[in-house]
Amino acid sequence: MSSTEAARKLLLGDGTTxxxxxxxxxxxxxxxxxxxLAIANVPFDDITxxxxxxxxxxxxxxxxxxPELTLPNGTIITESxxxxxxxGEADPEGKLYPSDIAKRLKVEEVxxxxxxxxxxxxxxxxxxxxxxxxxxxxxxxxAESDAVIKKVRSTFIKEELPRFMGYFADLxxxxxxxxxxxxxLTIADIAAYQQITYFSRGIADYVPKDCLEPYPEVLAYxxxxxxxxxxxxxxxxxxx
Length: 240
What we know:
This protein has 240 residues and is mostly helical. The chain has helices at 3-12, 31-39, 54-57, 80-89, 101-129, 145-174, 187-198, 216-227, 229-239, and strands spanning 20-23, 45-48, 68-70, 76-77. It has a four-stranded mixed sheet. The longest helix is centred in the middle third of the chain and has 30 residues, at 145-174.
């Protein structure tokens, strides 16, 4: 049995019990898993946990967090990157997470770069959510909170974002001008798409929606990702 066949067997079971993905009513870290499962043609029940029910639900989860992916055999997968790689492995075309070790290494390198972006951004987002972690008072008691949050996030957009966008632009050029690791869409592209487009969604205060406009090569790349037939089909199904 190939690794792809084994992955599909885990995710599909015997067809009588559906795969179940549980997360909040946001894209978050679960969206890339949803997209990969859709591309791999793996049906799943997309279960939304209302925020108001989370405190009741939380003690029933394995590690007190979501998403959780429940396989047909009852096994619960708790880490989103494990789910993501498993979904990629299940792609019957073998493109999302290629078995060729050299190609897979490229995918892993880009996944690491995407993780670097998230890690660099994390202080800028969490200072607005949990300022105590950074030695500040709770936000409601911190008079300078808005000014500091604005400064930290604006600095990231001005100094860090250009650096990372340059890295992605270079990867696109180095790998043929289509996707980040070559001509085929991989889980690296899905992860990069989710991370990069986050900055243009108006989710975080003081991050302008047009902050990606200075990077036309990256914007064109994002257009190719969302224009991929299977990604477009997934997006269309969500819009219904």
